[in-house]
Fold this protein.
Amino acid sequence: MTHTYRYRIDRRTRYWTLLYVVVYLGLGLGLYMLYEGGYFSAWFATSIGALLLLMALSIPRKLILTKEKLEVRCLLDMTEIPREEIASVRRVAPEEMRWIFPLFGGCGFFGYYGHFLDLKHFERLMIYASEWRNMVEVTTIYEDKLWISCSEADQLIAHLTEPPAAES
């Protein structure tokens, strides 16, 4: 029993990604025009290049649900939650997304991922999403919260809430 859920980037995320690229290219071009060479332009290019590379390596790619665990696979990172550690699963209402503030991670560059703060409940949570719709909250027995998105959110919730099949 293995279920795979792929991330699909929505229109809002595509616009944010384009905005990031245009702003960084514009700043880089502006620095190139204003300062011919020098440490400041080299520092800027290196910092932005490293930042974009780190963000790109954390882009969520797919969710894999097996009878033992839930895996969130990124380009370089993988987060695993054993099924016996999942305390609850619920759908996140769109109104709740207004209270989310990024602490450390990517916000709009090919998705939303990293550590975020829920300002309404003042809780830290991890988000691996490619869209603001279809968000699912997975709470562990340690009260850690993970928000993930996939276009088949109802199917994911159904598979997570059903008991794992017994081995024969």
